[in-house]
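TA notes, week 10

Several of you asked for a full example with nothing omitted. So below is the full record: structure tokens for the whole chain, then the designed sequence directly under it. When grading your own attempts, check the secondary structure regions first.
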């Protein structure tokens, strides 16, 4: 078809051959080559077969030379009658292996062009097939381009030796760094201790009854992540405006009562603290969207365009529109809608490679119990929420239900689910005038530890 249309498939035969020749004449370069290119990026079949054979031999530490490679090709049943002659021609045509990484870059570039062409053809087919809304096709196009962009850096199937190398490297770095977290810090030490920070691709739910402070703890985490990681934090608020969120952040950072800020009743010293807090927040790369009709697809589309993204915070799950086409809950059951959103959130977290922290509302079921501490089953329209989430944290304050209790600002973050470690209760302290949660001097209880 491409030939009939006068189109030439992009590939570089000479560069492919030069890579293989370099690997044969200088096996010392094989490690660098396999770290920079994959067999699937070779266009010519025989070149791909030879590369895959050498890669397999390298993975098990086998000696690599024309004779052993030829023998392994026979074992792998990719040997051809002219294979021996072709290997010799590859070596003759490659005088040195010094430029092999440049050859790899050329082959990767041509492979990316081919992938772009295939994606463009698929998108064009969807356009002319009909039946899809423009937004659906646009979402498909963005997903495909974003996937190619990520794969041009990393991705694809990895062999076990490479995966183990990455894991061992991570363990070594953690050992050298002492208490350094493998994920992004929440700013709340005991929660970090349980979760080991917020990991790449994690979908974390923070659930509570209305007014318990789930938005506040989400903002606490967002500000701390932006401050300590130096990465971009994206906040999607479907309930509060950007200005309301910023006011809460200012109150928490400046330690000035939010009511005073709203009234503008500040003394000179408080004005100074306010300006210092505003300056500090301005230095952080925090971006906010307060569109109340946001969908997961729209959120993901915005996040794909953000360079150096480190964290996504969503407030809150049950307010988000369901399908990418923007259908509302009026057209489908609430449980199914929330289940779809939950699954899409997890897929988005994995696709973006960053943690997604999502606030969630609890049902009234806990209010009928004597012990009102949250349980997984209290997740409102839970569906598959608890299944999709990597971690679920339930917020609880005795003072929320009994203002006359001994310590109304004592709070608990109950780790209800944690794929990466322990569950149990972490003690926090609620500071209502600053609408913020802070670490508590008391330590977590023994449940699950």
């Amino acid at each position: 078809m491409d030939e009939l249309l006068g189109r030439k498939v992009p590939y570089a035969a000479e560069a492919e051959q030069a890579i293989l020749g370099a690997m044969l004449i200088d096996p010392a370069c094989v490690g660098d080559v396999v770290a920079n290119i994959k067999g699937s990026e070779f266009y010519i079949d025989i070149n791909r077969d030879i590369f895959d054979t050498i890669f397999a031999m390298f993975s098990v530490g086998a000696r690599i030379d024309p004779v052993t490679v030829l023998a392994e090709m026979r074992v792998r049943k990719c040997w051809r009658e002219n294979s021996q002659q072709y290997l010799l021609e590859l070596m003759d045509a490659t005088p040195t292996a010094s430029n092999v990484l440049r050859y790899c870059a050329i082959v990767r570039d041509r492979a990316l062009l081919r992938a772009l062409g295939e994606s463009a053809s698929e998108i064009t087919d969807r356009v002319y097939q009909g039946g899809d809304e423009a937004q659906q096709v646009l979402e498909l196009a963005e997903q495909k381009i974003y996937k190619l962009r990520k794969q041009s850096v990393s991705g694809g199937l990895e062999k076990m030796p490479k995966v183990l190398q990455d894991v061992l490297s991570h363990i070594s770095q953690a050992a050298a760094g002492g208490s350094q977290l493998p994920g992004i810090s929440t700013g709340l030490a005991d929660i970090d201790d349980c979760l080991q920070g917020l990991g790449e691709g994690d979908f974390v739910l923070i659930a509570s009854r209305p007014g318990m402070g789930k938005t506040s703890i989400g903002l606490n985490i967002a500000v701390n992540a932006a401050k300590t990681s130096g990465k971009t934090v994206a906040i999607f608020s479907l309930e509060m405006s950007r200005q309301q969120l910023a006011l809460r952040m200012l109150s928490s950072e400046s330690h000035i009562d939010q009511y005073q800020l709203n009234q503008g009743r500040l003394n000179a010293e408080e004005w100074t603290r306010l300006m210092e807090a505003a300056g500090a927040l301005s230095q952080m790369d925090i971006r906010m969207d307060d569109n109340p009709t946001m969908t997961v697809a729209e959120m993901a589309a915005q996040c794909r365009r953000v360079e150096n993204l480190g964290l996504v915070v969503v407030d809150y799950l049950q307010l988000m529109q369901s399908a990418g086409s923007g259908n509302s809950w009026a057209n489908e059951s609430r449980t199914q809608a929330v289940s779809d959103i939950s699954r899409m959130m997890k897929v988005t977290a994995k696709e973006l490679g960053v943690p997604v922290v999502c606030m969630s509302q609890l049902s009234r079921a806990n209010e009928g119990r004597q012990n009102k501490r949250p349980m997984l089953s209290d997740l409102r329209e839970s569906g598959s929420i608890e299944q999709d989430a990597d971690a679920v944290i339930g917020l609880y304050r005795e003072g929320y239900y009994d203002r006359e209790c001994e310590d109304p600002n004592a709070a608990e973050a109950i780790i209800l689910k944690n794929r990466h470690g322990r569950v149990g209760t972490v003690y926090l302290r609620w500071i209502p005038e600053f609408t913020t949660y802070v670490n508590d001097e008391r330590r977590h209880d023994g449940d699950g530890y």
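The longest strand covers residues 410-418. Use that as a sanity check on your answer.
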